């Protein structure tokens, strides 16, 4: 097949999908096995490292270096171009590191096979990016095929303006970054802003190509991607979009590669549509079931959709996955549940989150409107939780300051907006026992740490510490984890247990005959396997959720498309009806008797297929099963026979 990517290219951000949807809980082996055709989809590049793909591997008890290297090495053997997200001096963590640590990390990842570092600072401060650039240049001099993208963090935020982004882009360009990476962790974006910024970047920096990265949390990413495309194609410039396999897309992750390809292909202007990437649909399809099974296994970590919750998050510009920050604050949930009179209520956790995000909206101005990306997003949400707690106890909302917010206010994390409430800065300075804000110190001017780590590891019993052990000792909170990995005594977290209906059925050779002596006794596990297994249940869930989001007007649609909302809705509803109405036929074709089909599809005192569908739907969104019944009530053959 003639592969023609034209001006529009796709970047498969696999790493971010595992982080955003599944909380970086699957192991490297699970990730690789679930997506065996990732190298064949015809995406230009794949993201395999960075973000939480280091510290969270360690927190799950895994050897972080083995995990990272497995993934990168896997794609290196296919000669795939690979990227990693790196937080400047902060690397993969939340505090800045000295240059010896930065350089060692860059060289280790270059050696493993990373080709592009997306080098970013959450407040678009160039100072924390200097160390990574210097280290990348050293790696280039050593012969590695590697560059550093200059990342510009963007969102619908008073601190993010086109002139400000252009000034920052000039700094990135002067420092030696190759190409620009427009990153929106929250996905709160205005398409007009994206179009204007993309246009200005192209006009002012014609030698730099652009990639855009936006999460789908609020349904704005596809429209913003199309806005960037319109600007780039006008100038005949390359534009790359961050996308994901359809089974790992949407929700708090990123747009689907297949859906974006269709949007571009069907754009009414041929000047754009002819540049649509040509994906390998067979390769995408071949990994579909395996990925859906992985997503099902780790479904408890995925953020459930709720319109009221999403609306409160939207106002506060909260990135998806913020709940993990809240759950890490000791005593928070129990105390807020008590103070909000939510004890014993089924929706307590949802209401706690809504109250916290409403508070976050209120405190953003006092905090200087930090861009909601790591580490500022987690710190802002943490402060919102403490502020709510304070107010409910009759105290000033800033009576207690979240540790990360203190570091931000005094300048330890870099750029501090002029609009911050000065009383908060004074409070933070007092807490730090310093008289004036800190002038951020680049990694290039920080005291080295690797030699100290070497000496500490010697004392802890590692006779000849290698560079990876020293780096882990510096970067990870739990120092004993490094020793446990050295002794091969680290214990990885167990996989979540699969619910009964999704487990393997009893093999036919071990099945028992029913009383008639002719038919085998079959249970719900056999039925689920016959209709398509967990992948089919997951597909039903994703289609119903998509329909619910369309009904809730969750998406903004790109300019130039007629009736796209109704097309998406009707297409999904038609496919959903087809899936449901084939269930009985599949069971009969697989040897189930009419009586067995009746028992497994109607309420006869045992678990039914509808119960299994309900289980999967309610994990995706509370009340989604009732919405599903409403959707199909009028014309579903299967539902009418199941009543």
Automatic annotation (TrEMBL):
SUPFAM superfamilies assigned to the protein according to its UniProt record, in alphabetical order: Aldolase (SSF51569), post-HMGL domain-like (SSF89000)
InterPro entries to which the protein is assigned, alphabetical: Aldolase_TIM, Carboxylase_cons_dom, PCB-like
GO BP term, pick one: gluconeogenesis
One GO cellular component term: cytoplasm
Molecular function GO terms recorded: pyruvate carboxylase activity
Transmembrane segments: none
Name this protein carries in UniProt: Carboxylase conserved domain-containing protein
Species name: PS1 clade bacterium
Lineage: Bacteria, Pseudomonadati, Pseudomonadota, Alphaproteobacteria, PS1 clade
């Amino acid at each position: 097949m003639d592969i023609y990517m034209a001006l529009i290219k796709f970047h498969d951000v696999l790493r971010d999908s595992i982080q955003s949807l599944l909380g970086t809980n699957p192991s490297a082996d699970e990730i690789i096995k679930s997506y065996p055709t990732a190298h064949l989809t015809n995406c230009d590049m794949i993201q395999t490292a960075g973000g939480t793909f280091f510290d969270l591997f360690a927190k799950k008890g895994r050897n972080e270096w083995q995990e990272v290297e497995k993934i990168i090495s896997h794609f290196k053997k296919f000669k795939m171009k690979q990227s990693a997200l790196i937080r400047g001096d902060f690397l993969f963590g939340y505090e800045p590191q000295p240059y010896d640590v930065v350089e060692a990390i860059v060289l280790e990842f270059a050696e493993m096979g990373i080709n592009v570092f997306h080098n970013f600072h959450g407040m678009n401060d160039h100072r924390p990016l200097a160390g990574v650039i210097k280290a990348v240049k050293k790696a280039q001099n050593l012969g590695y095929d590697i560059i550093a993208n200059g990342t510009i963090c963007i969102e619908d935020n008073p601190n993010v303006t086109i002139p400000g982004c252009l000034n920052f882009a000039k700094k990135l360009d002067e420092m030696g970054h190759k190409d620009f990476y427009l990153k929106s962790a929250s996905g709160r974006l205005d398409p007009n802003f994206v179009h204007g910024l993309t246009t200005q970047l192209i006009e002012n920096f014609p030698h730099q190509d652009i990639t855009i990265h936006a999460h789908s949390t609020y349904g704005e990413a596809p429209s913003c991607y199309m806005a960037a495309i319109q600007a780039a194609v006008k100038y005949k410039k390359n534009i790359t979009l961050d996308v994901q396999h359809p089974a790992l897309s949407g929700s708090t992750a990123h747009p689907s590669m297949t859906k974006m390809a269709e949007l571009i292909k069907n754009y009414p202007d041929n000047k754009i549509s002819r540049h649509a990437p040509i994906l390998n649909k067979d390769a995408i399809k071949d990994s579909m079931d395996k990925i859906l099974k992985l997503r099902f296994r780790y479904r408890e970590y995925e953020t459930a959709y709720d319109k009221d919750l999403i609306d409160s998050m939207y106002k506060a510009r909260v990135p998806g996955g913020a709940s993990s920050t809240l759950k890490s604050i000791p005593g928070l949930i129990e105390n807020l549940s008590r103070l909000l009179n939510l004890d014993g209520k089924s929706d307590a956790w949802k209401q706690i989150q809504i109250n916290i995000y409403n508070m976050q909206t209120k405190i953003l101005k006092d905090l200087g409107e930090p861009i909601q990306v790591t580490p500022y997003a987690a710190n802002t949400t943490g402060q919102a939780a403490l502020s709510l707690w304070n107010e409910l106890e009759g105290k000033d909302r800033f009576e207690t300051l979240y540790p990360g917010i203190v570091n931000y206010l005094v300048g330890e994390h870099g750029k501090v907006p002029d609009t911050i409430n000065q009383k908060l800065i004074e409070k933070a300075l007092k807490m730090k026992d310093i008289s004036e804000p800190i002038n951020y110190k680049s990694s290039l001017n920080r005291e080295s740490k690797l030699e100290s780590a070497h000496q500490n590891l010697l004392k802890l019993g590692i006779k000849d510490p290698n560079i990876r052990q020293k780096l882990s000792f510096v970067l990870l909170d739990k120092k004993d984890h490094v020793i446990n990995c050295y002794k091969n005594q680290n214990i990885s977290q167990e996989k979540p247990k699969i619910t009964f209906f999704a487990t393997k059925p009893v093999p036919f050779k071990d099945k028992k005959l029913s009383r008639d002596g002719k038919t085998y006794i079959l249970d719900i596990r056999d039925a689920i396997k016959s209709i398509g297994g967990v992948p089919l249940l997951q597909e039903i869930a994703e289609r119903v959720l998509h329909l619910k989001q369309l009904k809730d007007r969750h998406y903004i649609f790109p300019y130039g498309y007629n009736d796209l909302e109704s097309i998406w809705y009707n297409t999904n509803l038609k496919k959903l009806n087809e899936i449901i109405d084939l269930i009985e036929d599949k069971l009969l074709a697989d040897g189930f008797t009419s009586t067995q089909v009746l028992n497994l599809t109607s309420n006869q005192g045992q678990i039914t297929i509808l119960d299994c569908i309900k289980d999967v739907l309610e994990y995706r969104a509370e009340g989604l099963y009732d919405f599903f019944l409403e959707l199909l009530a009028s014309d579903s053959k299967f539902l009418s026979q199941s009543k």
